[in-house]
Amino acid sequence: MAVKNRNATMQDVAALAGVSMMTVSRVLADERKVRQVTQDKVQAAILQLNYKPNMSARSLASSRSRLLAFLYQNSSEGYVGQLLIGALKQCQACGYNLVVGSLDGKEEDFAKVLNGLLERNNIGGIILPPPLSDSTTVLDFLASIDIPVIKISPQKTQHGFSYVCMDESKAAFEMTEYLIKQGHTKIAFIKGPADHSGSHLRYQGFVKALEKHGLALPENYIEKGLFTYRSGFEAAEILLAQKDRPTAIFSCNDDMAAATLSVAQKCNLSVPDQLSVVGFDDAAIATSIWPPLTTVRQPILSMAEKAIDILIRQLEAKNTEADEEMPQKNVLDFDLVMRGTVLPPSAM
Amino acid sequence: MAVKNRNATMQDVAALAGVSMMTVSRVLADERKVRQVTQDKVQAAILQLNYKPNMSARSLASSRSRLLAFLYQNSSEGYVGQLLIGALKQCQACGYNLVVGSLDGKEEDFAKVLNGLLERNNIGGIILPPPLSDSTTVLDFLASIDIPVIKISPQKTQHGFSYVCMDESKAAFEMTEYLIKQGHTKIAFIKGPADHSGSHLRYQGFVKALEKHGLALPENYIEKGLFTYRSGFEAAEILLAQKDRPTAIFSCNDDMAAATLSVAQKCNLSVPDQLSVVGFDDAAIATSIWPPLTTVRQPILSMAEKAIDILIRQLEAKNTEADEEMPQKNVLDFDLVMRGTVLPPSAM
DNA sequence: ACAAATAATGATAGCGCTAACATATTGTGA
DNA sequence: TCACAATATGTTAGCGCTATCATTATTTGT
Questions:
Q1: Most buried residue, A210, B2, B195, B317, by most Cβ within 10 Å?
Q2: Which chain B positions have a beta carbon within 8 Å of A233's beta carbon?
């Protein structure tokens, strides 16, 4: 297919542009200290030769670590895979590499495992998805060795580390408002476990929406769940056994929403005609059940990308002794994914 | 914590071992052309200094591509994330790097996208998870440029590319036998789509087990599904509406098994007391429903690792002009995961 | 036992890039 | 206008490793 002439080197670019290699190098990195006309010449040469810098040579010469680590636990969740994909892409785009490390043993071994990983690989920064983003053991250790860290969707925001997350409260608020605008007034809520990230925020957003629209919040419309299918099942059974049934149920995550669908079915309630159901997360289960679940999509890919961006910025600030504002907090947008489980309440 | 003395270089190792750097380099790579005593000396020095070779320097000096590409489509599946994790780990262990590329556009653009990716990065080999492992477009293109490729769980095994997979037929056979040994004789089966990898093999294993144990295979116990929750739901409804109901249902994947659980519930059949259900894949949904699903676990991580191993071997064989047996086929072991949806049939 | 073949090891020269400093060019105020 | 600062660009010397070939130690056949 394509003729394989040796890849262009920086030397070629420099020659073609009529400048020294250093200038090319600066155009690639600095941007600041090169005159516009020179930059243009160089860029043109780069384009013409389809020059791509050699990563190995780069990191060898600069001896700067262009290696980040992605630490995870509970690899089974699809969530982690998604994050990983996003992180990997962004790393490539920025000329960084990513190593993955799993922390699955005992909590007391974490420090040892971490130390090994870091020493072996000369890692410059760390990206921490949940639940590690809230592990005191890990966080304490990382704080002690002064390495850039970015947390994804942490619950607690102490430790001074930067993080990215989304506005869960706002998402719950908007989803609830959507239900209200569809005409629902009897909306029940299945809470998540008190200690889980987002659980409280989601409930908060729900309550705020009800208040804004002057709707009541009967205590018997609020049930506690544990984020598991089973707990959602039990909660939904209680909710739907009542005389004055809700016409919509907002479940704090998709697993419990899926369970709610099962209960509705068992009660011969058709979804969405007789009961509307919404979830949160846009997990895999949301589209593998029927009807497909209306839910809130977390911007997982963007989170990962943003996280890498911030991490790299911190790392480079650290290298150049520049002062970077710390910690960085980044709140991303979400999407309401309207699928098949919401309809206006039927006239009963 | 740890004192940060400069990382040991190969020079240090050579000095300590009393040999030249070249010898150290050979110990790290060749192994063959170095005497045992020398190897031992070097290894000892490496250990003592905790020496770790510098990847950048290595690939710069050897100018050999230590870069593999992981191409995927439909990133939404947790499956891909798992594969990616496994592949990444193995790559690191072998001193390789992995870039990920998604092929989500139109089929006719694949070649262009691929070409871009490969040219840009000097990629040495490609790992292809499903469904790309069966994409004629991609396979044809890759065949045309003569690059090492490894397919994961392909349906078709032509194209001469190596692949790794598991013995789906045997897994289905064993799972069915397990059901039979529990005392079940009336076992129904929900098939997958005819064109999907594994769908047929799983059915085949099921049939073989019935035959071995002299059990009948009534036509009304076989239903067709599409691997979706909804299709499983419909299939299960038909299966369970019959007068002479099966006491166990083998569903060709977990989503449909989950749907079967829903139908059972709707029919007031308790699982596993009155109906046993098994699935296939050990997808996320298997443990997010209640009771947790007994199913077949695909060795996804091992598959990815093995795939990388084979790919690297091919690449190195290609570099050294050595003849590697082609194509490599690798069939991995599976696990039967006994959870909560199987019990002996109740005396009715 | 000795030359010839073979195996093990070493010396040298980069791989493609950037850090650090040197130099050339431009701008500034008196 | 000139000294001087500020900015832009070039020069030199490696980063840590491996390819290549030269050299030295070991084996082998007769």
A1: A210
A2: 290
B155/chain A closest Cα distance in angstroms = 23
Distance from CA of A316 to the nearest CA of B (A): 19
Each residue's pLDDT, cut to its tens digit, for chain B (348 residues) gives 334 456 789 999 999 999 999 999 999 887 778 889 998 999 999 999 988 888 889 888 987 777 888 998 865 567 788 888 899 888 877 778 788 888 877 888 888 888 877 766 778 899 999 888 888 899 999 998 888 999 998 877 777 899 999 999 999 999 999 999 999 999 999 999 886 777 889 999 999 999 999 999 999 999 999 888 889 999 999 999 999 999 999 999 998 999 999 899 888 899 899 999 999 988 878 888 889 999 999 898 899 999 999 998 888 877 766 666 778 889 999 999 999 999 998 755
Domain boundaries, chain A: 1-47, 67-166+301-333, 168-298
CATH number 3.40.50.2300 given to B168-298: yes
Q: Closest-CA residue in chain A for B89?
A: A100
In three state form, how does the secondary structure of chain B look? CCCCCCCCCHHHHHHHHCCCHHHHHHHHHCCCCCCHHHHHHHHHHHHHHCCCCCHHHHHHHHCCCCEEEEEECCCCCHHHHHHHHHHHHHHHHCCCEEEEEECCCCHHHHHHHHHHHHHHHCCCEEEECCCHHHCHHHHHHHHHHCCCEEEECCCCCCCCCEEEEECHHHHHHHHHHHHHHCCCCCEEEEECCCCCCCHHHHHHHHHHHHHHCCCCCCHHHEEECCCCHHHHHHHHHHHHHCCCCCCEEEECCHHHHHHHHHHHHHCCCCCCCCCEEECCECCCHHHHCCCCCEEEECCHHHHHHHHHHHHHHHHHHHHCCCCCCCCCEEEECCEEECCCCCCCCCCC
CATH code that applies to domain A67-166+301-333: 3.40.50.2300
The CATH H-level superfamily of B1-51 is: lambda repressor-like DNA-binding domains (1.10.260.40)
Set of chain B residues whose Cβ sits within 8 Å of the Cβ of A59? 56
